Amino acid sequence: MKAVIDKDLCTGCGLCCDTCPDVFEMQDTVAVVKGSEIPAASEETAKQAAADCPVEAIKIE
């Protein structure tokens, strides 16, 4: 499972980083995914971060 952030949609609010810091981090003014795969232990919080994104910039694949 992996996460993808649409940098054109991301507003840099940081909510995903607060919700799931194992997967997301801020770089400059946008959020990025830390690794290529979501760790199994972080899958549920990554899904929650995607659901909570106010601009729907995060997709979980």
Alpha-beta content class: alpha+beta
In N-to-C order, the SSE pattern is EHEEHE
Helix amount, in percent? 10-25%
Give the N-terminus to C-terminus distance in angstroms. Answer: 6 Å
Give the gist of this structure.
With 61 residues, the chain is α+β, with helices and mostly antiparallel strands.
Task: Explain what you see.
The chain is of the alpha+beta class. It has 2 helices and 4 strands; from the N terminus they run βαββαβ. The chain has helices spanning 15-19, 43-52; strands at 3-5, 24-27, 30-33, 58-60. The strands form 2 sheets. The protein has a two-stranded antiparallel sheet. The chain has a two-stranded antiparallel sheet with strand order 2-3. A hairpin with a 2-residue loop joins β2 (24-27) and β3 (30-33). It is globular, with a radius of gyration of 10 Å. The mean pLDDT is 97.
Features of the shown structure:
single chain, 61 residues, alpha+beta, two-stranded antiparallel ribbon, two-stranded antiparallel sheet, 2 helices, 4 strands
Topology of this structure?
Layout: E1 3-5, H1 15-19, E2 24-27, E3 30-33, H2 43-52, E4 58-60
Antiparallel strand pairs: 1-4, 2-3
